[in-house]
Design goal:
By secondary structure, the protein is mainly beta. The protein has a single domain, classed as Coagulation Factor XIII, Chain A, domain 1 (Distorted Sandwich), CATH 2.70.50. The protein has three helices and nine strands; from the N terminus they run ααββαβββββββ. Keywords: Cytoplasm. InterPro entries: Ig_E-set, Rho_GDI, RhoGDI_dom_sf.
Length: about 200
Amino acid sequence: MSHAQDPTIGDDELATTKTAGYNPGEKKTLDEYTKLDAEDESLARWKASLGLDTASAAVDPNAPKLQLHSISLVSPSAPGGAVSIDLQQPKEQLEALKKNPLNVKEGVDYSVKIVFKVGNEILSGLKYVQVVKRAGVTVDRMEEMIGSYGPRAEPYEKKFASNEAPSGMLARSGTNTVRSRVVDDDGNVFADWTWAFKITKEW
């Protein structure tokens, strides 16, 4: 999932930090992982946490490695508890997101949540990173660990730490352009998209 990006938010600003103590090690196929030493209890628990004890039979070998379903700004005060963007829309509609920003009420606490599906292999050390700019100036940057996930038919959900939306006339003065990315610790980019939000007096 990669679309034409906002040229004002460069790849260097989306570079992630390395996770301390993380060693990607040797890549294995899903089948190789499922056949790893069954006598190792800790390994068995790790495989079960990724769904490898049940999921492999149902995996579509042609499925994309990672498929994003939606991104939401979750807040108790938001209508329905969240404002969301369907990331499975056609490319043209996704491009229009930059011109049709989400409204975020000033001063509220909110959390970013993504819903995604993992396809035909284990994805390790996934991270979500976003850079927010207003009038060409970086006003916020967020980098959060998503974790490691195995293939399964049902989507996963990941909600990140809470943030407070800015308030005041200056905060409401323009549109915030956001470039978001899902990457792993090896630098592989699984999703890269641009969207926008505005700080408003009400949702």
